[in-house]
Amino acid sequence: MSAASEPGGGGDRTRAVIVDDSRFMRTLIRSLLEEGGIEVVGEAKDGSAALETVREHDPDVVTMDIEMPTMNGLEAVDAIMDGHPTPVLMLSAHAEEDADVTFEALDRGAVDFVTKPGGEVTSSMPRVKKELVEKVESAARVDLSANARAATRERRGDAGGAGASGATVGSEAGSSATNAASETRPSSTGQSGTTDRPAPDTGAASTAEADSGRTYPDVGTLVVGASTGGPNVVERVLAGLPRAANLRVLVVQHMPEGFTSRFATRLDERSAYAVREAKSGERIEAGEARVAPGGTHLLATGDRSGRLKLELTDTEPIHGVRPAIDLTMASAVETVSDSLCGILLTGMGRDGVDGMERIDRGGGHTIAQDEATSAIFGMPRRAIETGCVDVVAPAEEIAENALRYFAEE
User: Fold this and answer.
1) CB of 184 within 8 A of CB of 376?
2) Which residue ranges have biased composition labelled Polar residues (predicted)?
3) Is there a single domain that holds both residue 216 and residue 160?
4) Is 316 exposed, middle or buried (0-12, 13-18, 19+ CB in 10 A)?
5) What was the pLDDT predicted at 127?
6) pLDDT tier at 117 (50, 70, 90 boundaries)?
7) Same domain, 73 and 158
8) Three-state SS sequence of 152-164
9) I need a labelling partner for 157 at 20 to 30 A (CA). Which of 6, 20, 91, 390 fits?
């Protein structure tokens, strides 16, 4: 798929295929998308029909239901990625049991997900339409062409190597980022369309080996922000952090309410850190990580005896999102008394740019995901353009670069 500009940039309309076994739901989704300026070029009632429809219409994005007869959404993602790679946006019911399946879809190659709209017409429908249209526009701008390259790098052992350095931002790197004309960039997940995942401790093991001889302060604070294409990259970053680094980690991933708890559980299973969804008023210490709950801003409000106090707030969205990366990073700058590092990963828009600037002005360290491994190079590119980013690194080298900052020489 060719590079595309941001929504509203004057380019061609985004073309979508809707896959759902419910005719009513297909009609509702079509109506919401068309009202939002999306061109619906085809529909399918199950996964087996979806592949044929995708081949026929070659859309920019596919919206995919999960539970369908004949071939379900997970199997359909596999078939599409194998037969006609196209960005897939999963439509997931707002339920805990659907969260696991939704994350499995991301593992198989889906680029993002959104909560499935309810069948009844309510006052919240304008908000539902706005979210759905924005997610479709964002998903359509994910370029899947790097999946094979990422898998090749994995096989060659290039990923997560101890000698990974990352690129320090200078005038040449900043110029390259400024001249980027598009936010559409390859996915960094490297998923091959199967249920097999790279062993989560592989990156951590590589980092641990590289960490031999390093010493760390008693506590350091890391804030990680991500949007579209981010969940698998966030997992990779946390998997690369050894417990010995003594970090307190705050994760802000743009994600609907009801899914961040399961996301935290996945991170906990895949890292050496104790990861949970954040609770208002709690304190975290070295070796712990917290994920901002969907629909709620996460703030750091106190730092005492190596423990960071957290608060949640439901104030207005920032940049149209809640939780907002900017608010968490800004609060960390005001609160954290030890070493502070901000990481900004893949995503469309500019959430996190102001936060990264604040961390930089406050004397902290800033790392942005590079263009080649970002599913969408919007947020990192904008941060790089400000000149506030210390290091630009591919997904597999971000943890290592953060560890270098925190390590005592």
Assistant:
1) yes
2) 178-195
3) yes
4) exposed
5) 81
6) confident
7) no
8) HHHHHCCCCCCCC
9) 390
DSSP codes joined into one string, 270-328: HSSSEEEE--TT-EE-TTEEEEPPTTSEEEEEEEETTEEEEEEE-PPPBTTBSS-HHHH
Question: How many domains does the chain contain in total?
Answer: 2
Task: Please write the tens of the pLDDT for every residue from 334-377.
Answer: 999 999 999 999 999 999 999 999 999 999 999 999 999 999 99
* pLDDT tens digit sequence for 177-224: 433 334 433 333 333 333 332 333 334 444 444 555 789 999 999 999
Task: Give the three-state DSSP class for 177.
Answer: helix
Question: Residue 11 phi/psi, 5° resolution?
Answer: -85, -175
Output the domain CATH number for residue 180. 3.40.50.180
- Find, among 20, 37, 61, 229, the residue nearest to 129 by Cα: 37
* Partner residues linked to 222 by β-bridges: 249, 341
- The answer on 85 and 197 residing in a single domain is no
- CATH number of the domain bearing residue 39: 3.40.50.2300
Measured distance CA(323)–CA(229) in Å, rounded: 16
In three state form, how does the secondary structure of 217-256 look? CCCEEEEEEECCCHHHHHHHHHHCCCHHHCEEEEEEECCC
Residue 170 and residue 199 share a domain:
yes
User: Which range of residues forms the domain containing residue 318?
Assistant: 147-406
Q: Tell me the pLDDT tens digit for each residue of 44-74.
A: 999 999 999 999 999 999 999 999 998 999 9
Cα separation, 75 vs 374, in Å, equals 25
CB distance 60 to 140 below 8 Å:
yes
Q: Within this chain, do residues 170 and 234 fall inside the same structural domain, yes or no?
A: yes
Gyration radius of the chain's alpha carbons = 20
The residue behind tokens 């104030």 is: 315
Cis preceding linkage at 323, omega within 30: yes
Question: pLDDT higher for 298 or 114?
Answer: 298
Q: Is residue 77 part of a domain?
A: yes
Whether the CB-CB separation of 382 and 351 falls below 8 Å is answered with no
Q: Which residues are catalytic?
A: 227, 254, 351
Q: Over the stretch 257-283, which tens digit does the pLDDT of each residue have? A: 889 999 999 999 999 999 999 999 999
Task: Establish if 2 belongs to a structural domain.
Answer: no
Residue 252 falls within a domain, yes or no?
A: yes
Provide, rounded to the nearest whole percent, the portion of the chain with pLDDT above 90: 71
pTM score, whole prediction:
0.83
Q: Are residues 385 and 252 in the same domain?
A: yes
Beta carbons within 10 angstroms of residue 82's beta carbon: 13
Can you tell me whether residue 388 is helix, strand or coil? coil
Per-residue pLDDT band at 170 (split at 50, 70, 90): very low
